Amino acid sequence: MLVERPHRGAAHLNQVRNNGLRALQDTLCPQDEDLTLIIDGDMVLAADAIARHASAAADVILGSRADLNPNQTEQLSAALHGGERDRAEQIISEAWSAHVPEARARQRRLERQLRLRRVPVLSRLLVKAHKPKLLGGHHAVRWSMLERVNGYDERFVGYGFDDDDLARRLYAAGASVCVLVDAIPAVHLYHPTRAPGRPGEAPGYARFCQPWSVRAEMGLDRPDEQPDPALSIIRRAGSASTIDARPT
């Protein structure tokens, strides 16, 4: 299943994510307990990563990533396009092994924030509303929680803070959290960053600092204005593929 629409001239990542979620809602009718895994297009996960997400008994599962350099990215892309899955897994494993010490330190930090969050007084004093941090590269959320917070806030345009906003709304909605940043191998393909020199200079920062509520005003059930998305259903029979396209 592929959902696409004409580019609007600026990055509307949250709207694109919601378009995918709305297509799932219309075609597959997700149940409350279904786990929705969000993976960015510049991410590659190990073969067992989805199973590891699915094994977690929580509303929100937090992951991490190892950043590849240009050479590693080129090698991994060549292996994947060449159908060399074993070689691709080797590249992912090597990059992840080098990342493990950082991931374990991050795991301990996020687990500490999660423990503090469970104590209301300490949570208000010592933990920011969006911590433990949800990393946009890959994370998973129960469908019931996505509906409760009305999905991603489509008023975020451009780089930054959209994932922090989702995290604070999920936590405010009472979502249970499982931190698996050191247990789900995933790599981030190299590309020039769009991140500004300072976080406060990111386009999304101003929106993040505005008043917010648990349910996004413009989200799953109230999209921001956009060109009509088109949904393509790809059916495979042996080595052949057929595509049925229709408006969502």
List keywords for this structure.
248 residues, single chain, 4-stranded mixed sheet, alpha+beta, 8 helices
Description:
By secondary structure, the protein is α+β, with helices and mostly antiparallel strands. It has one domain (32-228). Helix content is 39%, strand content 17%. The protein is built from eight helices and ten strands. The strands form three sheets. The chain has a four-stranded mixed beta sheet. A three-stranded antiparallel beta sheet has the order 1-9-10. A three-stranded mixed beta sheet has the order 3-8-5. Strand 9 and strand 10 form a beta hairpin. The longest helix has 33 residues, at 85-117. The protein is globular. The termini are close together. Mean pLDDT is 91; it is low at 239-243.
Rg, Å, rounded: 19 Å
Distance between the termini: 11 Å
Q: Class by helix and strand content?
A: alpha+beta
Fraction of helical residues: 25-40%
The chain-level mean pLDDT equals 91
The shape, in one word, is: globular
**Which residues sit in consecutive blocks of at least 5 with pLDDT less than 50?**
239-243
Please count the helical segments: 8
Strand content: 15-25%
| Total domain modules | 1
Largest sheet: 4 strands, mixed
Order of helices and strands: EHEEHEEHHHEHHEEHEE
Number of strands: 10
Strand order of the largest sheet: 2-6-4-7
How would the blueprint of this fold be written?
Layout: E1 2-4, H1 13-28, E2 35-39, E3 43-45, H2 49-54, E4 60-62, E5 66-67, H3 70-81, H4 85-117, H5 120-126, E6 138-142, H6 143-148, H7 162-172, E7 177-179, E8 186-188, H8 203-208, E9 230-237, E10 240-247
Parallel strand pairs: 4-7, 5-8
Antiparallel strand pairs: 1-9, 2-6, 3-8, 4-6, 9-10
